[in-house]
């Protein structure tokens, strides 16, 4: 059995394994090679360690179990070599992309709750679900994993299968305890959020009271201002009317004064004229008497004006 499987590792361990080589019809198990070349079909890809390989049970069928284990071991070793080569190639091509996608998923995960504007609703740790349940906590298992598990389970003995089931049950109990504890923590988170909402409601109530008080003060100030404004407008109207009357009186007074001044000036001019006429009349009368006396032959000693 070992001699039949020796050529396979040299073929699979090439730097770039091709599908044509793995589909060689002369190989020992062509169906297994086809499954290895196609990653989408259910295949058996053992991990780097072969801890799940069947062990040899002590008993009356030990020789028969040893033969079956040796055959399965040689086939699984060949599969392990092919899977290691394919896994190395996949890690070299997709290692960086996978790490980037995981980081993007953790940072830019779509929110389950959005507001009216489409923005994510901010909240506590459980706003997008718990950490141990829900779709975000459940991985998407490739069909090849189920095929590997079924293939490995078929190769296990009842004792090995029972031991694995017991181990899985222990892990399930531990996980159940963690899930229950997380449920309690989520309830506490909800209680805390409700308490914060209650505190915000108290702040809102106090703010509404302050708003009502400020609104009342504003209404009083507005009423007083409107009254004073009405009084001011009335007084301004009366003031403007009084100012107009005063200005009109001042204009009339100035006009009267101007008229009186002009009249006085005319009287002064007329007085000068009258005084001049009176003086001239007195002189003319005296000269006239003298002239008449001369004409009548009377001697009058009058010094003539030169």
What would you say this structure looks like, in words?
- This protein is mostly helical and 306 residues long.
- The chain has a domain of 118 residues.
- It is 72% helix and 0% strand.
- The longest helix is centred in the C-terminal third of the chain and has 138 residues.
- It is rod-shaped.
- The N terminus is likely disordered.
Unreliable stretches, pLDDT < 50, 5 or more residues?
1-72, 95-107
Q: Mind summarizing the main beta sheet?
A: none
What is the ordering of alpha helices and beta strands? HHHHHHH
Shape estimate: rod-shaped
Tell how many strands the DSSP assignment holds.
0
Structural class: mainly alpha
Share in helix: over 70%
Number of helices: 7
Q: What is the CA-atom radius of gyration, in angstroms?
A: 63 Å
Whole-Å distance between the termini? 186 Å
- Mean pLDDT equals 74
Percent of residues in β-strands? under 5%
Region (Disordered): 1-172, 256-277
Biased composition (Polar residues): 21-40, 77-96
Biased composition (Basic and acidic residues): 1-16, 259-276
């Amino acid at each position: 059995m070992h001699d039949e499987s020796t050529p396979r590792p040299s073929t699979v361990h090439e730097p770039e394994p091709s599908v044509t080589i793995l589909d060689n019809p002369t190989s020992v198990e062509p169906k297994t090679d086809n499954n290895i070349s196609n990653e989408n079909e259910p295949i058996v890809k053992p991990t780097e360690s072969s801890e799940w390989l069947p062990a040899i049970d002590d008993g009356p069928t030990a020789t028969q179990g040893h033969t079956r284990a040796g055959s399965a071991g040689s086939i699984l070793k060949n599969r392990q070599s092919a899977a290691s080569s394919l896994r190395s190639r996949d890690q070299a091509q997709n290692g960086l992309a996978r790490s980037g996608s995981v980081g993007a998923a953790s940072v830019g995960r779509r929110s389950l709750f959005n507001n009216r504007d489409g923005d994510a609703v901010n909240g506590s740790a459980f706003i997008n679900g718990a950490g141990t349940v829900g779709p975000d906590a459940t991985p998407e298992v490739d069909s090849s994993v189920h095929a590997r598990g079924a293939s490995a389970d078929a190769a296990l003995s009842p004792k090995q299968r029972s031991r694995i089931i017991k181990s899985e049950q222990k892990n399930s109990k531990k996980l159940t305890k963690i899930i229950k504890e997380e449920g309690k923590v989520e309830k506490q988170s909800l209680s805390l959020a409700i308490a914060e909402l209650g505190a915000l409601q108290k702040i809102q109530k106090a703010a509404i009271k302050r708003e009502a008080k400020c609104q009342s003060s504003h209404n009083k100030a507005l009423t007083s201002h409107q009254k004073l404004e009405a009084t001011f407008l009335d007084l301004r109207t009366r003031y403007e009317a009084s100012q107009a009357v005063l200005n009109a009186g001042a204009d009339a007074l100035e006009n009267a004064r101007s008229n009186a001044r002009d009249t006085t000036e005319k009287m002064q001019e007329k007085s000068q004229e009258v005084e001049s006429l009176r003086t001239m009349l007195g002189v003319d009368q005296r000269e006239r008497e003298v002239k008449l006396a001369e004409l009548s032959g009377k001697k009058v000693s009058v010094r003539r004006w030169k």
